[in-house]
Amino acid sequence: MRRSKRSRKFVRAAALVLVLAVAGLPAPQDPVPVSPRGQAPAKPLQYELAVVLKLIPVHVADKKGNPVLDLTRDDFSVTDNGRPVTITDFERHAVSGAAVAPADRAGAAAEPAAATQAIRPAARKFFLFFDFAYNNVRGILKSRTAALHFLDTALGPEDEVAVLTYSAVGGLAFHEYLTADHAKVRRVVEKIGHSDVKGRATEIEDQYWRLVQESPGGGAGAAIGLSFRAEAEGNRQESRSMAMKYMDKMTALARALRLVDGEKNFVLFSTGIPNSLIYGYASGNVTNRADVARASGDDVLRRRNEAMYKEFGAANCSFYAFDTRESAIATSLFAYDEQTMAMGSRAMSTAIEPTSVFQDGKSTGLNSLKRFTDLTGGKYYSNINMYQKNVGQLGALTGTYYVLGYSVNERWDGQFHEVKVEVGRRDCTVRALTGYFNPKPFAEYSDVEKQIHLFDLALNERAVSRLPIKMPMGMLAASAAGASRLALVALVPGEVTTRFAGRRVEFVALFFDAAGDVAAIVREERDIAPQRGRDMAFAAGTALAPGDYGCRLVIRDLESGLSAVASARATAGRPQPAGLSLGTPLVLEPRSGCLFVCAADRKGGKAFAWADLYGYDSSIYAPVPPNGTAAAAAGLKVVVPCAAPGGGPAADLGLTASLVDAATGRRIPVTVAIAGRVARGPAEVLTLDLAAAGAVPPGAYYLHLYAGDRASGALGHATTALSLR
User: Fold this and answer.
1) Which residue blocks in 257-380 are alpha helix, DSSP H?
2) Does the pLDDT value for residue 8 go beyond 60?
3) Which of 178-192, 349-363, 558-572 is least confident?
4) CA 688, CA 489: separation in Å to the nearest integer?
5) Higher confidence at residue 524 or residue 439?
6) What integer pLDDT is reported at residue 92 of this predicted model?
């Protein structure tokens, strides 16, 4: 299911829309309220019925496999759980530059302007998936080449890409979540190499069936045969366990991806799970009763495998599989004859690599990959060596499609709905999702689903599952004695805490460097039930190298999944070799009852203690984050760290300050009085009382602080932005 920007505005007068959601990076915008995906009120709240718009992406191709884009809404029919539905919204999408033939049918119905979207480029979501468990070294290297070609030739500037891998040892891992920063994705893909090949399960399955068919049947060779069979059976049990683990992890991923909005295209590089392991291996050489039973397949694996396909289809994921078996061997002109001759002796046959193109297809993953693509509406590419042609076709297939929309009553029961889409025109092939699941309460999420939920909140610039409530947040930078520190401070409005029905709430602060990589993560969990409906303040800090940084704060109710998100940017400067080092001023206003929650980054023993640099009495004051709003200029205090060259306090400190009107540039003198000085490690924390000369009208201002050490002549300057109501 997919919700476009246009569909988010689509609300019927009779619809009761349940609004629950969370935010995006780097500068979250207030979203249009939508019925949520993965968001639910915590029990025992009542789950209200919501009428929502389901959007179904549909790909239509002619008998040659070329996209068909001259269809109208009347050409389509849709059923939801067997019930015909009325298509209320209809869109066409095409990658930039795609050629689309005009309609040539007599009497083709014209589309109402309000219901038809013109053919236009559309952002897509791609997941580059490198399967290390079912692969080979040459295949992975060729996969890397194909993936880089895909990044260079098949993407539009707004397309988002993620990179994930699976290995039998390390399991499923995200290396990059959905991002439009293609250079970042390229750097990740370039690191794919030999060391990533783990758990070559295909070898075990091939060895098992080879030994079953070739072990001696009697006489002196019988004991040898039993030994071979025992070894093969043990290996096959290991292979079965690996396949089951793979299916379980992938199924969990599919369920979690229901939370990610829109159509998701998986570009899978793999040789596939051996077909014989799941569906059996029929051969005239298998005569033993036990072997015949095993040759019929594994019913448990078969059911789990089919469930995995269904889950990905329901999560609106289409798989485009690049079979890497073609890269298993470097085939020469005489390779086929050499392999055929080798079949004559057992010693030679065991030397054939299990992922060889000459291997019997019944024991390879070819059928598994084809079934994966067929049931999810994707496409199977048999020869990885033809990646240039196939990548071009993949780009066209994923970029040209229709979107059909219809209204449904959405219930919070997690039930599956089967969807069928048909086209009235002859000789057309239709690819669409097979169904969808209703949302379910956050408390029922699996660990993987909660992880994907957090990924979407923290990393997806277009995340829609957020509370549409502004949360003021800014960043503070300070440096002294060769160390640079960054801190965030956020004001969590009572409007947010009112919506959090659970007792436990987590605060996750993510610091991103200039390249967009995660530089630090700070997490804190608290019971905020006593504070429900009241404002809160949150702060977190970490020690970082000098440079530009962004930060995203995710506050998530651990029972309902409701979340609030804020973002900010700052620069961690280098400690001044000469002159006074002033940190970013933290403005305080008189206000009681604002609970203060603080978290520290303790990784590597570099704990950031908030009180070391920005301590204040939270019982009578509340912070005003940089770019935040204070009630009035009267009664403001400022906390600012200050360090002399080389560290320590200034011997004879003098301070001046001014407010500058951001709109007019008018400078308003401010009187500064030092209310407190506390030594904290290499810095000194100053608490200042501010008093403006006369009334200060409401508006946006810059506060400038100037410091001078009269003994040494060292100077320092710091500034912050604030607004006055």
Assistant:
1) 275-279, 289-295, 299-314, 335-342, 346-349, 366-376
2) no
3) 349-363
4) 19
5) 524
6) 87
Furthest CA-CA distance within the chain: 110
Long-range residue pairs from 354-358, CB within 8 A, at least 24 positions apart, any chain: 354/200, 354/202, 354/203, 354/205, 354/206, 354/207, 354/328, 355/135, 355/136, 355/139, 355/202, 355/271, 355/324, 355/325, 355/328, 356/325, 356/328, 356/329, 357/325, 357/326, 357/328, 357/329, 357/331
Given the structure tokens 């009112």, which residue do they identify? 498
C-beta separation of 542 from 601 below 8 A: yes
Domains and CATH numbers, the chain: 12-16+43-122+399-443 (no CATH), 125-389 (3.40.50), 448-724 (2.60.40.10)
Do 707 and 652 touch, CB atoms closer than 8 A? Answer: no
DSSP state of 352: S
Distances 79 to 376, 413, 422 between C-alpha atoms, Å: 18, 20, 9
Give the residue, 433 or 24, on which the prediction is more confident. 433
- DSSP 8-state assignment for residue 470: -
The amino acid at 418? E
Q: What is the CB-side half-sphere exposure of residue 354 using CA atoms within 13 A?
A: 23
Q: Hey, what amino acid is at 483?
A: A
**Peptide bond preceding 216: is omega within 30 degrees of 0, i.e. cis?**
no
Sequence-distant (6+) residues with CB within 8 A of 181 are: 516
Residue whose token pair is 């089919």 = 306
Q: What mean pLDDT comes out for the span 558-586?
A: 85
The SS3 call for residue 452 is helix
Residue with tokens 């891992």: 173
Reference 24, options 550, 519, 558, 557; nearest CA is 550
User: How many residues are present in the chain?
Assistant: 725
| Burial of 689: CB neighbours in 10 Å, binned 0-12, 13-18, 19+ | middle
- Name the packing angle between helices 201-214 and 221-256 (round to 10°): 150
Q: Please say if the pLDDT value at position 86 is more than 60.
A: yes
CA distance 464 to 516: 21
- Stated as kind and residue range, the H or E segment containing 437 is strand 435-437
Strands 317-323 and 264-270: parallel
- Contact between 591 and 634 under an 8 Å Cβ cutoff? The reply is no
Q: Given pLDDT bands bounded at 50, 70 and 90, which one contains residue 207?
A: very low
Q: Is the pTM of this model over 0.85?
A: no
**Measuring CA to CA, which residue among 97, 26, 33 is closest to residue 465?**
33
Q: Got the DSSP string for 620-634?
A: TEEEE-TTEEES-ST
Say if CB 199 and CB 205 are below 8 A apart. no
Tell me, what's the pLDDT at 296?
Answer: 64
| Average pLDDT over all residues of the chain | 76
> Nearest-CA neighbor of 173 among 159, 184, 183, 188?
188
Residue 489 has pLDDT above 90, yes or no: yes
pLDDT tier at 606 (50, 70, 90 boundaries)?
Answer: low
Q: Check whether 61 has a pLDDT greater than 50.
A: yes
Residue located via tokens 């890497």: 324
Number of neighbouring beta carbons within 10 Å of residue 568? 22
Does the N-terminal peptide bond of residue 44 adopt cis geometry, omega within 30 degrees of 0? yes
HEC states along 584-595? CCEEEEECCCCE
Q: Of 178, 492, 141, 602, nearest to 327 (Cα)?
A: 141
Is the predicted pLDDT of residue 572 greater than 60, yes or no?
Answer: yes
Structure tokens at 195: 């060391």
| C-alpha span between 196 and 138 (Å, rounded) | 12
Q: How many Å apart are CA 90 and CA 723, to the nearest integer?
A: 45
Task: Give the tokens for residue 525.
Answer: 């969990």
Per the DSSP assignment, residues forming a β-bridge with 655 are 707
Q: Ranked by mean pLDDT, which of 114-128, 141-155, 314-328, 635-649 comes out on top?
A: 141-155
